What we know:
The structure holds two protein chains of two kinds.
Chain A: E1 15-17, E2 31-34, E3 39-40, E4 46-47, E5 51-57, E6 67-71, E7 97-98, E8 103-104, E9 109-113, H1 145-158, E10 164-170, H2 172-183, E11 188-194, H3 202-217, H4 226-229, H5 234-248, H6 251-258, H7 277-292, H8 295-307, E12 328-334, H9 342-354, E13 359-364, H10 378-395
Parallel strand pairs in A: 6-9, 6-10, 7-8, 10-11, 11-12, 12-13
Antiparallel strand pairs in A: 1-2, 2-5, 3-4, 5-9
Helix pairs in contact in A: 1-2, 3-5, 3-8, 5-7
Chain B: H1 14-20, E1 28-32, H2 38-46, E2 50-55, H3 58-66, E3 70-73, H4 76-79, E4 88-94, H5 103-113, E5 114-122, H6 127-136, H7 160-169, E6 172-180, H8 192-198, E7 201-208
Parallel strand pairs in B: 1-2, 1-4, 2-3, 4-5
Antiparallel strand pairs in B: 5-7, 6-7
Helix pairs in contact in B: 1-2
Amino acid sequence: MVQPLTQSQPPDGSSLSADASGDIPDAHPGKSLTLQTALPLDCGIAMEAVTIAYQTYGCLNAEKNNAILLCHALTGDHFAADPHPVTGKPGWWSNLIGPGKLLDTEKYFLICSNVLGGCMGSTGPSEINPETGKSYGTDFPGITIADMVRAQARLIDALGIDQLFAVIGGSMGGMQVLQWAASYPERVFAAAAIASAARHSSQNIAFHEVGRQAIMADPDWCDGNYALEGKRPVRGLAVARMTAHITYLSEAALHRKFGRRLQDRHDVTFGFDADFQVESYLRHQGFSFTDRFDANSYLYITRAMDYFDLAKDYGGVLANAFYGTKTRFLLASFTSDWLFPTSESRAIVHALNSVAAPVTFVEIETDKGHDSFLLDEPEFHETLEGFLAGSAYLKGLEISPKMAD
Amino acid sequence: MPNSGPTVLTNIRVDLQLVADLVENNSRVLDIGCDDGQLLYHLVHEKQVDGRGIEISHAGVSACAKKGLSVIQGDAETDLSDYPSGIFDYVILSQTLQAVREPRFVLEQLMRIGRYAIVSFPNFGHWRIRAHFALKGVLPNTVTLPHPWYETPNFHLCTIRDFFKLCEIMDLKIEKMIAVNAQGQALYSPTLRWANLIGEQAVFLLSPQVCSTPK
């Protein structure tokens, strides 16, 4: 499988374009790969001509053993380090990626792809269905986390990489990490699942359902065919985002940031304007989200997360998913994360212990909630850095990590 | 990228060195209560062991993770039962047995998951403790047992002789017994009686009794 990396012609004959300029006029910046053979999905459909949009940072070494796959969360995308092409905001892990940084681009070859079902260039409900010439809308097949990972594996094939040095991701990205470790154990040397879970909890499904109902209740959703009608269900999508955004924070963080402070006024207005700063903040978060995200993508990806239950695919025993694994694992959770609480990470640790897998597990103390994995959390960053350094040492990539604290 | 090899370590604590010397190269080791990972790091880098750790304190786990060690936040009483039998060559329990709720259960778990167990604990039979108790009639306050009775984490203190008895009851083979002073240096102790008198701490290397008499 190891073949020289060519930008124009990957080994499987898929077309690999170096950047945005190409056949599709409105393509997003970044790289993309179109699969020449069908991608089998869990729902039973084999999907033709799947496109995977991705970005890379750093260089693949001659041994091809320094590649790290970064898996993005629900509303993330492959612009992990560079400014977002729509919003212009820094990439979601731009604080960690770069020369000399934790994810050192002088040492590692970083790959991040937009998930299947996404809306930033990978095949998703807003893309054109080649069979009908119209956007998929709700004709898009239901997808799973395993489908996303299967698509990523095709990309890794195309890049000529046998084994990834590491797969790293937070939240839904962590689900992909676990799925990678279960589906392709020999292709993952080290796996870091941050603020994640091996299954979506009932409460998490419940919150997603509220979001989906908000989208589908928006008349502009048009039964999913808003693209054909020239409309966009921005109000529904904004409410979905507002709800979800609360779950990414903690009560303490919200209170510290806003308290009961009023927004540009001295007293309440006895109306339904955004009297409170927290309301104004949420409205802003909700509506700015609609600039960069597609409502149907939101439906499909939240569904994929809801369906995720790794143990279910292995006879109901999570440990079976990792039986005989040689992969090194890092699990990290955050004390104030009530969306993916520590107990979920601990369940994975117990499963990994029962197959004697090498695992590091840390619960990081913070009051910033689920979003902590995207924020400046030195304790978490030092842990991830130590894990990568320890893995690199065992892989023969570098000298041993520092003994000093 | 060439592998420049591990940095050479010169110093680890004497008591840890004593434990490290009991471990064979290239073995599989679980260090329970591994603290900041000093011993585990030494074993991984100097003895090429496949090392894992369990540590209860957040600061300890964090320090271990930063050193690249596979260490989980957990404790001996709840997390050992997850591991499959016989998976490790050595299971190390340093200065912890006296602080667990059920020492016998924990010892059983050690013997189940490891081929050998290395157990160290403060010796309540040391002459100074005996003298202290006999002469003053109060519980001792020593370097190895610094806490007053009302806030000590050590609620299952024992003497070297007591531990010997437990090993007998559990049919464990004592491969090695080392009496140790407060600084962790091994002491010359030809007999059990002598060890129990002069050892401020003890280190045991245990294995399941291989040639036990039929019952």
